[in-house]
Amino acid sequence: MNRVFLLAVVAIVVAALRRDARACDPVTPWTHMLDTTMQATDHTPPTLPATPAPQIHFEEDSATDGCAGKCGDGNWVGIPAVATDDKTEPARIGYRLSLASGTIPQDMSLPITDIEPLFGLVRVYFNRETVTSWDFTVQVIAIDLAGNESAPQMVRLQHSDSGCAVTGARRVRFGLGWLAFLALIVTAYRRRRP
To answer: Which of 62, 72, 170, 177 could form a disulfide with 14 if both were Cys (CB 3.0 to 4.6 A apart)?
Structure first.
C-alpha cells in the first residue's frame, strides 16, 4: 500500500510541475511599411553605426518570456538594431539584409522583405537540426518611415559547433518535476533499507 501511495504522489508531482505543452505561434518580425505622409518632409537618412557582434539563440535555451519562451521562437542569429533617425523611432526603423559574400546554408534564410527589429534585434532564422555551422557576410541597410536609406554596413555571421556534437542529439534538462521524482525515489529506497 505504501508503494502505491508513493507512486501516486510522484505521478501527481511530476504532472503538476511539467511545463505546459500547448503550441503557440513563434514571434516573427513585422514587415517595414513606409509612411507616405512623411515622404514629403523627411529627407534625412537614418544613421547606421558599426554593428555590435550578432547574438545566437537556440530554441532549447529559451527562457520563459511569455509565448516565445514556452514554445521557443525558433533558432536565430540576431543582428543588433542600432540605427537612429531624426524622425523615426528606433523600433520603427526597417532593415534590409542581403548577402554580400559567402554562402547561406540551405535551411537558413534572410528576410525577403524589409523588416522592423524584434526586441532590438533583426533576426535570421535557421533550422537547428540541419544547420550547425555558417560563415557569410550580409549587407545591412537601415530605412526610416519615409523610405530614406542609410549607408550600408557589413556584418559577418559566423558560427561553428564543436566537433563533438551528435546530429539530432538534444541536451537533457532536469526540471523541478524530475528533481522531485528523484528525491522521492531516494527517500523510498532509504526507507526500505534496514
So the answer is: 177
Q: Is the pTM of this model over 0.85?
A: no
Residue 129, in any domain of the structure: yes
Residues 136-168 have pLDDT tens digits of: 999 999 999 999 999 999 999 999 975 433 333
In a domain, residue 181? The reply is no
What 3-state class would DSSP assign to 146? coil
What does the block give as the cell for 151? 549607408
Domain count, the chain: 1
For residue 86, tell me if it sits in a domain.
yes
What distance in Å separates the CA atoms of residue 1 and residue 4, rounded to the nearest whole number?
5
What residues contact residue 57 under an 8 Å CB cut-off, 6+ apart?
A: 73, 74, 75, 76, 77, 78
On average, the pLDDT of the chain sits at: 78
